[in-house]
Amino acid sequence: MSQDRKKANSPKAPVRLRLRITAAAEAHVRGGHPWVFAESVREQNREGPAGELAVIYDRKDKFLAVGLYEPDSPIRVRVLHTGKPRTIDAAWWAARLDAAVQRRDGLFDERTRGYRLINGESDGWPGLVLDCYDTTLVMKIYTAAWLKRLEEITALIRARLKPERLVLRMSRNMQGAGRRAAGLEDGQILIGDRLESCPTFLENGMRFECDVLRGQKTGFFLDQRENRRIVETLARGRTMLNAFSFSGGFSLYAVRGGAKSVTDLDISAHALEAARRNFKLNQNEPAMASCRHELLQADAFAWLAENPKREFDLIVLDPPSLAKREAERTGAIRAYARLTELGVKHLLPDGILLACSCSAHVSADEFFSAVRQSAAKSGRRFAELQTTGHAPDHPATFKEADYLKAILLNFT
């Protein structure tokens, strides 16, 4: 058969998915924003499946960007690359993984074996995070665009990072899609053997367990590591309340810092049992023997309002996100103000308050203002010690990624 006949009988390569977007969206993409919203797409040559590479052209028909397409998401394209055209192949993905890992070089020593390796869009992996818990890695995906690439990315992680175990976590909104499209389940083990118990890891020499199969986020709040260290430096001789305590991370640091007593307050019995186990994991810490550890299961807002006689020298307020969508922003700001008001009432003279927010829809300025205004309304004099943001292994390179903020106040 002639070469011409072979070409005629061979299947044609699919026409590349091409999009054009609004002028405003073009400007955002050129400025480094990694999302193209559905309403910004003004023209495309065809429909495409989730995860297909979509090429975006500007008004002069020149290459602008390439990204992961998702037809059923308000975020229609998650940008991978802008500038000059690039081939997105296995070598490109490997280089991008290596770059993310190299950004963490020198951040941690052998006393810290829990950290983030990939922080989504801010590391060039839109909608995907990868956390390290010693020899276990946890990959969490927030968009169906990754489903068709999961096998490729898993093989890359195996070859490049060589974990003993890789666990897949999926955001709640896409677990159904994962099940339907690829038979995947949240908590599925992609590499390694089945887990018999929660793996443990070191953080600044403290040992913690991590529920990588069913726990919140990827199993632990790695992003608060630096704030836990700050609490340790302030805890000596103090009585501490850890509200919304989860598995007791702030409390363990306070114990090591010399606190007289720590009280974990959480609505979840499961979280409090995890805190109890974490305390047992660290019984070798010399300060454990002289520090009283109390566990209280209750709604933190209600308990603070109903127990005015309980007073502490150090209070940590670290609630879950109070604004998961923009419509909840105003209510969340009021809730942060109310929480601060309640917390201050439980502070002894020379008491310290650490107030935290992980709500991306509430800006740092809005959160800090709410806390400061409530502090002023208390009638007590206070000094602002510091504010903090993202940990270095959790970079935030665009507005929507900037979620974590905390403020420390010392009340007389």
Describe the structure.
There is one protein chain. The chain starts with a helix and ends with a strand. The chain has helices spanning 3-9, 23-30, 90-103, 150-161, 175-182, 225-234, 249-256, 269-281, 300-306, 329-345, 364-377; strands at 17-21, 35-37, 41-44, 53-57, 63-69, 75-82, 114-119, 128-133, 136-141, 165-170, 188-191, 200-203, 206-209, 239-243, 261-266, 292-297, 312-317, 347-357, 382-388, 405-411. The longest helix has 17 residues, at 329-345. The model is unreliable at 1-8 (pLDDT under 50). The chain has 3 domains: 12-82, PUA domain (Archaeosine Trna-guanine Transglycosylase, Chain: A, domain 4, Roll); 90-191, Transcription Regulator spoIIAA; 221-411, Vaccinia Virus protein VP39 (Rossmann fold). 29% of the residues lie in helices and 28% in strands. It has 11 helices and 20 strands. The radius of gyration is 24 Å and the shape is globular. β9, α4 (150-161) and β10 (165-170) form a beta-alpha-beta unit. A 7-stranded mixed β-sheet has the order 16-15-14-17-18-20-19, sandwiched between helices. It has a 6-stranded mixed β-sheet with strand order 2-6-5-4-1-3. It has a 5-stranded mixed β-sheet with strand order 7-8-9-10-11, covered by helices on one side. It is of the alpha/beta class and 412 residues long. α3 crosses α4, α6 (225-234) runs parallel beside α7 (249-256) and α10 (329-345) runs parallel beside α11.
- The percentage helix is 25-40%
Whole-angstrom Rg: 24 Å
| Named CATH topology of the largest domain | Rossmann fold
Task: Write down the domain tally.
Answer: 3
Structural class, by secondary structure, is: alpha/beta
Indicate the low-confidence ranges by residue numbers: 1-8
Order of the strands making up the biggest sheet: 16-15-14-17-18-20-19
Number of strands: 20
So what's the overall shape? globular
So how many helices?
11
What is the CATH architecture assignment of the largest domain? Answer: 3-Layer(aba) Sandwich
